[in-house]
Amino acid sequence: TIRMIPHKTQRGIVAVTHLKVFEGIPPPYDKIKRMVIPDAPKLGYKYCLLGRLASEIGWNHYVLSG
């Protein structure tokens, strides 16, 4: 939502000017044929640990808190 952007600061004002919002599929992609990959929805895992997910994207303190 727009509430997450600090729109009252100079940095936030610049961020809001660069923001593009689309309802539905944006124009360059609406004419491309969509395809469904059969194996994509079948992940095989029933749960994911938040700490492990965070460490995979760069959080360095998983060992300390786990």
TrEMBL record:
GO BP terms: negative regulation of translation; translation
Source domain of life: Eukaryota
Molecular function terms, GO-annotated: mRNA binding; structural constituent of ribosome
One GO cellular component term: cytosolic large ribosomal subunit
Keywords: Ribonucleoprotein, Ribosomal protein
InterPro entries for this protein: Ribosomal_uL13, Ribosomal_uL13_sf
PANTHER family: LARGE RIBOSOMAL SUBUNIT PROTEIN UL13X-RELATED, RIBOSOMAL PROTEIN L13
Family to which the UniProt record says this protein belongs: Belongs to the universal ribosomal protein uL13 family.
Protein name: Uncharacterized protein
